[in-house]
Amino acid sequence: MSNRIYLDYNATTPMSPEVLDFYKDQLSLFANASSLHEDGRRAKKEIEIARKNVADLVNVLPEEIIFTSGGSESNNTVFNTMINLGKKLGKNLIVTTEIEHPCVLEASKRLADFGMEVVYLPVDEYGLVKEDEYKAALEKNPLLVSVMTANNEIGTVQDIKKLAQLAHEKGALFHTDAVQAAGKIPVDLKDWGVDYATFSGHKIYGPKGVGALFVKTGCKIEPLIRGGHQEKGYRAGTYNAPSIAAYGKAAELAKADIEHYTTHTKALREKLKNGLLEKIPNIKINGHPEKVLPNTLDVSFPGAEGEAILLHLDLLGVDVSTGSACASGSLEPSHVLMATGLGPELAHGSIRFSFGKYNTESDVDYILEKFPPVIDKLRKMSTLSM
Predict the structure, then answer these.
(1) Can 326 be counted among the known catalytic residues?
(2) Neighbouring C-beta atoms of residue 12, cutoff 10 Å
(3) Residue 386 forms part of a structural domain
């Protein structure tokens, strides 16, 4: 077992021991879940149990859940649906934000090839949607509004219930990417009134390669992957039954553990935040101070490059991120931090610490002991202005 400190839980989580054991047991149910014989029916039964568990996590009906390969596929399915739906309804405007996950930004860009227009809303310094500009965009009669529940880099949490209500008042559909939120904070889609929402198994200690799409009863959806009749024809392909079942188990455990998870990760985040502010001068905490995921802390260190910080922490045995793992390898500054008004220097010098349920206070103590000298060293070596 590695003795490294893992603080990149927003990128992915390990399968919990409970889920891993459950998953191993599920591997014996190898039959095709679409088959009508007994073994097929047993596999299908596990899928339906998982469907209910995922639905319960976000307070929707099981029949409103479609299993997919993950958040990216789920998001692309929603945006792909808008092409024909827009033609049918005579609407061609999509409204989203500048800080969405790359899969939403890329999926929305693709719609321009089909004659659709996309408006990218700005956010304030904390990453919250600017209400005046949001309302102004709604006056343009959009087909769909898409705003992520919680940002994967800075952790800022939007008021999805209010945003969805305003969108519906203007006749727009509403989608939220809830991949970073479901299982970390209470997500009540029935109360929020959204039309579409997306989730992923590997963010909540489940397996990779499986996720879900919520489609509110009565809302239109078109399959992105066509073929067989799986998922009522909305998502073709032989069921990955063991992974779907394990995702359901992870959702069940996340729902039961959410209060403890929130208390535990928030305490660690606050301990690290306060320690960094005390021990390292001239740093900036990014994201909203209160409307934020309990586990997420994004910090800018002026005078030091994020990549250099990450590599030094790596040598110390600490896993962190300079932003979204889906954008790693890019030399461009974080589009999220730039949207909040940070300049390239601060954006380049930012690190995301994202806690999980297996982190401890000793992890934070180790970082607070070893990390401040790293920043001091990098600042002395750096040609960046302070």
Answers:
(1) yes
(2) 14
(3) no
